[in-house]
Specification:
By secondary structure, the protein is an alpha+beta fold. The chain has 2 domains: 7-157, 2-Layer Sandwich (D-amino Acid Aminotransferase, Chain A, domain 1); 169-263. The chain is built from 6 helices and 16 strands. The chain has helices spanning 20-28, 109-121, 132-140, 142-145, 153-157, 169-194, and strands at 7-12, 42-52, 54-55, 61-62, 65-66, 69-71, 79-83, 90-91, 98-106, 124-126, 203-210, 213-221, 226-231, 237-248, 252-257, 260-263. The strands form 5 sheets. Strands 11-12-13-14-15-16 form a 6-stranded antiparallel β-sheet, covered by helices on one side. Strands 1-2-9-7 form a 4-stranded antiparallel β-sheet, covered by helices on one side. The protein has a two-stranded antiparallel sheet with strand order 3-4. Strand 11 (203-210) and strand 12 (213-221) form a beta hairpin. Helix 2 (109-121) packs antiparallel against helix 3 (132-140).
Length: 264
């Protein structure tokens, strides 16, 4: 394995005086430090995750191929991305299959972790298998969130390997809304080409593959733009109003629901 657990470290304020490179050279030459431990001030928290072309479900076997689609999260002052690839790049068997390093900063550990979870969702990687789902599973792990982990983290919490986390009821609902919207978006595009009158389907039946089982849902849009998503196995229905849809890069769907912006 080349990597796995997220590496965390505090951010320190810049030490005035000698620049960092010169300081390192002086230390290597045997000169004493001109500052003390008390001079080092912790400033927030940082989390790093290494995005690899590998299959966590197959003992992190490297995945080779071309990046048919590649989009990184939007970098800003609290998100840093180090990479040497772009869309169309080849992940070769001859080199380390790292795609990028994703680093976030926050005022505390939770803020940095929440930000890296959102940033992981914004990646679009097609053409190779990657470890982003595994990274999201780590971030959601309660023990990891409480900083209760060691080098035995993977065998402890993934003794049979990583098989993806089960979806929650809310995720089922959001996927139903996304499916309904994208289905009608596609039909609108076809009608536009054929110069037909637009007509939306209010009812959609959706099937999710979960492990070896099919999970069936009925999705119905209401006149007030709310969506009723019914689990046909349990009969339980959820009603959520969703609007302000934004479909980006043929892979990311954002919409507002329950006062929050969501990304599928």
């Amino acid at each position: 394995m080349n990597t796995r657990l997220q590496v965390e470290h505090p951010i320190t304020e810049e030490i005035t005086g000698v620049d960092l490179v010169e300081q390192q050279l002086l230390i290597a030459a045997g000169y004493p430090l001109d500052f003390k431990q008390a001079d080092i001030k912790i400033h927030g928290h940082s989390v790093e995750y290494r995005v690899y072309a590998e299959d966590p479900a197959r003992k992190f076997l490297p995945s080779i191929g071309f990046l048919k689609k590649y989009k990184e999260p939007t970098a800003h002052e609290n998100i840093r991305i180090d990479t040497g690839v772009q869309e169309g790049s080849e992940i070769s068997m001859y080199y380390d299959p790292m795609i990028s390093k994703l680093i976030t900063w926050g005022k505390d550990r939770k803020t940095a972790m929440d930000l890296i979870a959102k940033a992981m969702d914004e990646y679009v990687i097609r053409g190779v298998i990657h470890n982003l789902g595994f990274g999201q599973s780590i971030v959601r792990n309660k023990a990891f969130a409480e900083a209760n982990y060691s080098t035995a983290f993977i065998p402890t919490y993934y003794p049979n390997g990583y098989k993806a986390d089960p979806l929650t009821k809310l995720e089922h609902t959001h996927l139903g809304i996304a499916s309904h919207y994208l289905r009608n978006l596609h039909k609108d595009e076809v009608r536009l080409i054929n110069q037909d009158e637009p007509k939306h389907d209010n009812v959609l039946y959706m099937v999710l593959k979960e492990g070896e089982n099919d999970h069936d849902f009925k999705v119905e849009r209401q006149p007030d733009n709310s969506y009723v998503v019914t689990d046909l196995l349990s009969g339980i229905a959820s009603n959520i109003k969703a609007d302000n849809f934004d479909f980006e890069y043929g892979a990311l769907l954002r919409f507002d629901a329950d006062g929050e912006r969501h990304l599928i």
